[in-house]
């Protein structure tokens, strides 16, 4: 299997960097630090970044067609824009327990926002969907750790990661209704002492799935049949997510984490928690906007 090396883009030392998303009109990369409640924005020149703080864990976000964002947080789904101060609540489906928050999320090709939950105490997550008409849906239960989502270019397949089960699932996807069925394993990693698990993902224009590997030091590209084709090596152990962006959507952006690493481990990987990039020879799908 071919291996290529990602390059350092931003030194930000995120505790739990996640959810990178490219804004095509702005020409900027956005991402979050979940534990810190920070939403990061690069400048268009990709030479620096700024951040906005929220008083809740920030698992994921999406762009709205009408402007602004929807945030997937420890307090549920929130609406926010740069023009307002505090975000406003749209829907909080989370059970009233400590240690529960929304985790990874993404907008589908019809403009619906999907996000799942993580329960750090009971390992009981769910997958939710918030629609542009404000309807609210609980899609799946009994999830270990709800994680990466993506859709095939022909919009017939949805990919969904349950990290606690070491599995990326594929579902038949109905674009008109947003229903999913026929769940089957797409990629299932072996349980191992290194605890390498699939995390966030994105899907390119060829239908290949790029899956970040927590504790795996990289991102793996899988064929539409689930065969590993290439590894993007990253000098950080805990690789969390990836997205395409840049000119022609040929640039892969990768987030990482430093949470839970020992001082000795951090000394060996000084770029843990930073953002990396790779100019690929393929094309990614542009992000979908909510609405």
Task: Give the secondary structure arrangement, pairings included.
Elements: E1 2-5, E2 7-10, E3 17-23, E4 28-33, E5 38-42, E6 49-53, E7 58-63, E8 69-73, E9 76-80, E10 88-91, E11 100-107, E12 113-119, E13 125-130, E14 136-143, E15 146-151, E16 157-162, E17 167-173, E18 180-188, E19 197-203, E20 209-214, E21 218-222, E22 228-233, E23 238-245, E24 251-257, H1 263-268, E25 275-279
Parallel strand pairs: 1-22
Antiparallel strand pairs: 2-25, 3-4, 4-5, 5-6, 7-8, 8-9, 9-10, 11-12, 12-13, 13-14, 15-16, 16-17, 17-18, 19-20, 20-21, 21-22, 23-24, 24-25
The whole-number mean of residue pLDDT values reads 97
Specify the helix fraction band: under 10%
Main beta sheet strand tally, sense and closure:
5 strands, mixed
Helix/strand-derived category reads mainly beta
Q: Uncertain regions: pLDDT < 50 for 5+ in a row?
A: none
Overall description:
With 291 residues, the chain is mostly beta strands. The chain has a single domain (2-279), classed as TolB, C-terminal domain (Neuraminidase). The protein has one helix and 25 strands. The strands form six sheets. A five-stranded mixed beta sheet has the order 1-22-21-20-19, with no helix packed on it. Strands 2-25-24-23 form a four-stranded antiparallel beta sheet, with no helix packed on it. A four-stranded antiparallel beta sheet has the order 3-4-5-6, with no helix packed on it. Strand 11 and strand 12 form a beta hairpin. The longest helix has 6 residues, at 263-268. It starts with a strand and ends in a 12-residue tail after the last strand. The model has no long low-confidence stretch (mean pLDDT 97).
């Amino acid at each position: 299997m071919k291996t290529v090396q990602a390059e350092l883009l931003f030194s930000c030392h995120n505790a739990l960097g996640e959810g990178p998303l490219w804004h095509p009109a702005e020409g900027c990369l956005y991402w979050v630090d979940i534990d810190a409640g920070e939403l990061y924005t690069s400048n268009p020149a990709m030479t620096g970044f700024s951040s906005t703080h929220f008083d809740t864990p920030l698992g994921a976000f999406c762009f709205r067609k009408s402007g602004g964002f929807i945030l997937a947080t420890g307090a549920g789904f929130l609406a926010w824009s740069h023009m307002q101060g505090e975000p406003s609540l749209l829907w909080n489906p989370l059970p009233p327990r400590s240690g529960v928050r929304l985790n990874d999320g993404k907008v589908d090709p019809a403009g619906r926002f999907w996000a799942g939950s993580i329960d750090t105490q009971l390992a009981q997550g769910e997958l939710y969907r918030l629609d542009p008409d404000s309807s609210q849906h609980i899609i799946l239960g009994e999830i270990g750790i709800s994680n990466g989502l993506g859709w095939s270019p022909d919009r017939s397949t949805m990919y969904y990661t349950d990290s606690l089960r070491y599995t990326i699932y594929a579902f038949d996807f109905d674009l008109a209704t947003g229903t999913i069925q026929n769940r089957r394993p797409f990629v299932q990693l072996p349980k191992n002492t290194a605890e390498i698990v699939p995390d966030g993902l994105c899907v390119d224009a060829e239908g290949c799935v790029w899956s970040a590997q927590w504790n795996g030091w990289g991102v793996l590209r899988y064929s539409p049949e689930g065969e590993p084709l290439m590894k993007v090596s990253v000098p950080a152990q805990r690789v969390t997510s990836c997205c395409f962006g840049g000119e022609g959507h040929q640039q892969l952006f990768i987030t990482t984490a430093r949470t839970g690493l020992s001082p000795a481990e951090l000394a060996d990987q000084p770029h843990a928690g930073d953002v990396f990039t790779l100019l690929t020879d393929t094309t990614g799908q542009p992000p979908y906007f909510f609405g």
